[in-house]
Amino acid sequence: MALAAEETGILQEAYPTKARDGLSNYANSSTHERKATVFAKELIKTAIAEKLDKEILLSSKTFCIADLGCSVGPNTVLAVQNIFEAVESKCQYYLHELNSQIPDFQVFFNDYTSNDFNLLFTSLPNDRRYYAAGVPGSFYGPLFPENSLHFVHSSYAIQWLSGVPKEVMNKNSPAWNKGKIHYSKSGDEVVLAYKAQCDKDMEQFLQARAKEIVCGGLMVLIFPGVPNGTHHSQSLPNMILELLGSCLMDLARKGIISEEKVDYFNMPTYLMSPKELEAAVERNGCFTIEGMEGLPLPLPSDSSAVASHLRAAVEGMIKLHFGEKILDELFDCYRKKIDENFSILKSGNLVNFFFLLKRRAAN
Amino acid sequence: MALAAEETGILQEAYPTKARDGLSNYANSSTHERKATVFAKELIKTAIAEKLDKEILLSSKTFCIADLGCSVGPNTVLAVQNIFEAVESKCQYYLHELNSQIPDFQVFFNDYTSNDFNLLFTSLPNDRRYYAAGVPGSFYGPLFPENSLHFVHSSYAIQWLSGVPKEVMNKNSPAWNKGKIHYSKSGDEVVLAYKAQCDKDMEQFLQARAKEIVCGGLMVLIFPGVPNGTHHSQSLPNMILELLGSCLMDLARKGIISEEKVDYFNMPTYLMSPKELEAAVERNGCFTIEGMEGLPLPLPSDSSAVASHLRAAVEGMIKLHFGEKILDELFDCYRKKIDENFSILKSGNLVNFFFLLKRRAAN
User: Sorted alphabetically, which keywords does the UniProt record give (chains A, B) (predicted)?
Assistant: First the structure.
């Protein structure tokens, strides 16, 4: 058995788990936009109703659910509650065949060790009808015993790479990402380095899950992505990161931070297209794709909301690399740039993808 | 399925999980005294070697260990490592019958939600060869799915009651514990109320574990107790709490706190005798007792060490009930009393009990 080598050092620390919501999940910022979340929930319910094999319910005394990259907050608890209720209601339907024995439910909340599990545990409802456990560690490695999971859920998490690709921070590499903090407007070498990192991460992710999920078990992946054929630079989250990068370069030009410091700061996120995930699933070979949906999100109507969301998302990482002092000036510049570029930003692409995978019986 | 109603409110908050070590586990305070811990470890190894049925290893693809009331700190990790290694070495012995397949190991660290799971997760060794999970909640209720555990360990935890017995804080009850904070020098009614609370807690504890532990599974309980036939007031941990109570009453006499405030403060601990645990196991009926040892501890040689240990143990609870202001004066008084009474304290009884239970096959 090979076990999860915990991600350590600066990169792990650099992922404030709160960031996830801020960076890509506009969906909860207003009643209007919450519709996207509601839609994802409905897709999960339908997936369980239509694609979860009866045999799995009949053969498991305990039905195990894992939420990978769970973060903390009401969304974490609601997502799990939604899955639990859908499976339970399916059990009710087969109550006769189950000899009136609904299985026990055990939910594993996973995230990096630096996630606030204390807060997460406090926020679990007291009247929950499932057994809860927290599992620390990177989902790019093994986290659970073999054949122990029946349903895996991961939302707004797999766009975070396991780390920044090494080449983009190597002066002597053609993929050196000088003067930029992300790949979407960089040269092909940089984009390829990011893509290679994502491919490797997805390979490890799917390999680990293939071992952990029982045959017939389901996995739902929700992530912000780029539609097939759309250039990375047309994606709104990427556009916004580019603006942040240009603000950092402005500070460097003013001598407030060194340009070299910017060269060595890169965001460890990559937005996949559906085709890229499909290819990863095919290479892995242990899952079938049972469903895919694009969930286009309404573009934000308010520039200051975008700015403050994004500040919440990236502030922790910036502080860690550049120190606290620059924060106010940086985000001042940032807010202005977002405001100035708002009409361009509104042309950006903002879409989440929903994938439903099923663990194959063979292999 | 009935699920753990989380203990809430002041009592739960009042259990600083660190307290456990301080209150009863002198065993780690010096090399000399660490021998007691080493002895307990050896008992666990022997228990696994001699009493863990081969069939359990052969029938489980994942071997599940739970540490109940795990707290945080090096002892938590070491205790689990000891169990893991002993079971793994037994698997090596039966490697041929296991078709060279050592099972996966999953370790569940349980404690109250208020335990610092963040710190616990950080302290887990990166090269651990087991899957780790944290499980928040009171072990006086269900925590795990049915038939899901193979080995349960609980050390220095079950002497903490689920709460203070209500009668001792009821002015109109004959068990009202006026002017005292513990039962060991109180009237029979108070002692009986504490004992009844302990009986009820142990009933719930054993009932929950009987469901969770597979037939043939083992449970090791280590707790500070009183030898059969020894009066509660002769136990060193109890004597020390009595001194704390008398210091609080001194403060009340000086008008620094109200006497009523002392009346409503009681320590939720009860030290069982082996006979009491045996009776609880017999009433429950689902376990056999496979082994019992008394682990007498060397009496502390240094009064100031006792005082500082105990301050660490109870400070949180005192602060919560009486406020921060009284702490220095209280523990000043406390240190003096421990010093004055040290020769009497040295006559006190300090012993941990080790029980090995096995889940019966029937019922």
Answer: Magnesium, Metal-binding, Methyltransferase, Transferase
> Above 90 in pLDDT, residue A285?
yes
Least confident of A4-8, B172-176, B211-215: A4-8
Distance between CA atoms of residues B204 and A218, nearest Å: 36
pTM: 0.92
Structure confidence at residue A14 (pLDDT): 35
In chain B, residues with a C-beta closer than 8 Å to the C-beta of A144 are 106, 131
- Min CA distance, B110 vs chain A (Å)? 9
Residue-number span of the structural domain to which A293 is assigned: 16-359
Tell me, what CATH number does A325's domain have? 3.40.50.150
B283 CB burial (10 A radius; 0-12, 13-18, 19+): exposed
For residue B249, tell me if it sits in a domain.
Answer: yes
Q: Are A99 and A61 in contact (CB under 8 A)?
A: no
Q: How far is A86 from chain B (nearest CA, A)?
A: 17
Q: How far apart are CA A236 and CA A240, in angstroms?
A: 6
Q: How many domains does chain A have?
A: 1
Mean pLDDT score across all residues of chain B: 89
**B113 contacts chain A (CB < 8 A):** yes
Interface check A124 vs B, CB under 8 A: yes
Q: Is the pLDDT of residue B5 over 50?
A: no
User: CB-hemisphere CA count at 13 Å for B180?
Assistant: 20
Verify whether the Cβ–Cβ distance B106 to A1 is below 8 Å.
no
pLDDT at residue B312 is higher than 90: no
| ipTM value for the complex | 0.91
Contacts B116 to A, Cβ<8 Å: 118
